[in-house]
Design brief:
The protein contains one helix and eleven strands, in the order E-E-E-E-E-E-E-H-E-E-E-E. The strands form two sheets. Strands 6-2-3-4-10-11 form a six-stranded antiparallel β-sheet, with no helix packed on it. The mean pLDDT is 90. The protein has 132 residues and is mainly β.
């Protein structure tokens, strides 16, 4: 996976414990006519700031990846099934997310029903991140 940079402010928006789903939301603005949501599925561990501008999703190097998977208590036999993403920032220690996949979705700013959601029928998939 290549590093993915999303050029707008993103906030931690929702975390659902029952389904282990994390949503980060980038609101539409004057220069961006679509809302962008990043949905992380089967989240096993996180360390996040409340705001990222831009949001950078970077694959962790191998040593960091193994440390994150151990921290998340993912058994070694399942390591290949999870992403270990670093979220670097210029002024602080990077955050991280360990998850099974991440989907970047764009929703029209005029679609009030799905502004903060991830309905694939009403959104357009921009990127799908899965373990390699």
């Amino acid at each position: 996976m290549e590093t993915l940079t999303l050029q707008r402010p993103f906030r931690l928006w929702r975390y659902g414990v029952s389904h282990s789903e994390l949503l980060m939301h980038g609101h539409a603005s004057a220069g961006c006519d679509e809302h962008v949501n990043v949905l992380f599925v089967d989240v096993r561990a996180v360390k996040l700031r409340t705001l990222y501008d831009p949001l950078i999703l970077q694959p962790a190097d191998e040593q960091t990846r193994l440390g994150l998977l151990d921290f998340a208590q993912v058994p070694q036999r399942f390591h290949a099934q999870f992403l270990s993403l670093a979220l670097p920032t210029p002024d602080a220690e990077p955050g991280f997310i360990v998850c099974a996949s991440a989907t970047v979705l764009a929703t029209a700013s005029t679609d009030r029903a799905e502004v903060y959601g991830w309905n694939r029928d009403r959104s357009r998939v921009l990127h799908q991140l899965d373990p390699s």
